[in-house]
Amino acid sequence: MDGIVALWKERGMTSHDCVFQIRKLFKTKRVGHTGTLDPNVSGVLPICIGKATKIAEYMTNAGKTYEGEVTIGLSTTTEDADGETVEVKKVDKTFSRKEILDVFERLTGTIEQTPPMFSAVKVNGKRLYEYARQGLEVERPKRTVTIYELELLDDREWFSGEFVSIPFRVVCSKGTYIRTLAVMIGQELGYPAHMSKLTRTASGGFSKTDCVTLSDLSKLAEKNQLETILFPLEQGVSHLPKWNISDKVAEKVKNGAILEKPIDWPENDRKVAVFYKNRLMAIYQTHPTKQLYIKPVKVLTE
Fold first, then answer.
1. Integer Cα distance of 223 and 183 in angstroms
2. Do residue 86 and residue 187 come from a single domain?
3. 38 given a catalytic annotation
4. Rounded to the nearest 10 degrees, how much is the dihedral formed by the CA atoms of 285, 110, 71, 195?
5. The one catalytic residue among 38, 82, 155, 210
6. Percent of the chain residues past pLDDT 90, beyond the cut
7. Are residues 95 and 185 in the same domain?
8. Judgement on whether residues 198 and 212 belong to the same structural domain of the protein
């Protein structure tokens, strides 16, 4: 079977756990997820099966949407609610709605983040969480990410208390650490902070309403109906520009040919999904050295 499972990952499971379970249910090794979700985070985790694994990287690059909560007044080792307390500074002021919205505005757009020590980023061939578990702190490379939208999910005009919890929704690029974003919100407000809740509500073109749970999949497997919940490959590239081709061009694309760039080709060298008779055939981009031509980066015909 080839296609995409829109999985709702429940808290307590790793993304790898989910892949392992789906390999068993679908009886295939060709399974891959499209962006790790921490064990304590629930939400949308699209999983590619069979030929769909070839487009997993393009789904990973698509934007993601989260609903979370930042708690002001306390920071932790992991930047979320699971870590040990690092600093407590009880809030001794009242934040206005405008003050919080101004912070959200400053953090919208292109920003730099330093990955948390408890993360899977590699430094000198070793993952940061391995250093952290040994009590070591190493220099971490900063990364540039994009916050497309940062919305306050609370209609209060004033926020006060010893610890202030602020719910939010964020639409962001690949590689964004929401834990770190929560810490940055606290820094902007002048207090330690951590991410106290998080759910991923959309990823890779899929939302919660598209999803099934592992329990749902087990029931479908018992009835031999797993194929009924698979989304086609085409759904996984719905965020990419689309180019429909003719019979003549389709034969060339099938063979991975370099082609003359069409007049209406998108600017800025974006990846483009090539369709023939409503089926995804390949992913093309502008040729890196011959700007009047396009070349395949992935051919999906077999």
1. 46
2. yes
3. yes
4. 30
5. 38
6. 74
7. yes
8. no
Give the integer Cα–Cα distance in Å for 94 and 101: 14
Q: Is the dihedral of CA 110, 114, 118, 120 positive or negative?
A: positive
CB 111 within 8 A of CB 205: no
Question: Residue 122: its pLDDT value, please?
Answer: 81
Find all residues with CB under 8 Å of 83, minimum gap 6, and list them: 76, 77, 118, 194
- Cα–Cα distance for residue pair 162/165, rounded to 1 Å: 10
Q: Which two tokens stand for residue 248?
A: 């003549």
| Residue-number span of the structural domain to which 219 is assigned | 3-62+204-236
Query: Is 160 in the same domain as 97?
Result: yes
User: Mean pLDDT across the stretch 229-249?
Assistant: 92
For residue 37, pLDDT over 90 is answered with no
Q: Is the pLDDT score of 121 beyond 80?
A: no
Rounded to whole angstroms, the Cα distance separating 256 from 284 reads: 9
pTM score of the predicted model: 0.88
CATH classification at residue 289: 2.30.130.10
